[in-house]
């Protein structure tokens, strides 16, 4: 492992010494053990909570049409980051989905295809 790092550092040094610059300057996106950073010019659109925008105060577990978009095709409850909900509404949606599952209004899992 250490030998590979030395070899990689040597390769960076050799490549960058040809340009006459310091090899560390050209490795701004390189971090050991982590992911590369995104370019600074990328624009991330802020997600707003759909339920806050519609001013929904109570989430009813019997309204399955409202709960379906917050589950995956496998039947899992999607996370806050994916659904774009605020923490309060994510908790309310989760409890409503769980109640609807217990009352057999929503499936616990996706429908299974029988094995042949």
List the helices and strands and how they pair.
Elements (H helix, E strand, L loop, with lengths): L1 H18 L30 H4 L10 H4 L12 H4 L3 H16 L14
Q: What's this, in brief?
A:
Helices cover 40% and strands 0% of the residues. The protein has helices spanning 2-19, 50-53, 64-67, 80-83, 87-102.
Residue windows where pLDDT falls under 50 for at least 5 positions: none
Determine the mean pLDDT.
77
Specify the CATH class of the largest domain.
Answer: Few Secondary Structures
Instruction: Find the CATH superfamily of the largest domain.
Output: Ribosomal protein S18
Straight-line distance between termini: 48 Å
- Radius of gyration equals 25 Å
Main pleated-sheet profile: none
At the fold tier of CATH, the topology name of the largest domain is 30s Ribosomal Protein S18
Q: List the domain count as a whole number.
A: 2
* Secondary structure tally, helices: 5
Order of helices and strands: HHHHH
CATH architecture of the largest domain: Irregular
* Fraction of residues in helix: 25-40%
Strand content: under 5%
What overall form do the CA principal axes indicate? flat
Q: How many β strands by DSSP?
A: 0
Structural class: mainly alpha
């Amino acid at each position: 492992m250490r030998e590979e790092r030395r070899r990689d550092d040597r390769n960076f040094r050799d490549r960058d010494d040809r340009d006459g610059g310091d090899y560390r300057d050209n490795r701004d996106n390189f971090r050991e053990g982590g992911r590369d950073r995104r370019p600074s010019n990328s624009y991330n659109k802020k997600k707003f909570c759909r339920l806050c925008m519609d001013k929904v105060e109570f989430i009813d577990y019997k309204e399955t049409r409202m709960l379906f978009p917050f589950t995956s095709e496998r039947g899992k409850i999607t996370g806050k980051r994916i659904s774009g909900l605020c923490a309060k509404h994510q908790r309310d949606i989760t409890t409503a989905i769980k109640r609807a599952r217990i009352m057999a209004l929503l499936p616990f899992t996706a429908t299974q295809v029988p094995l042949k």
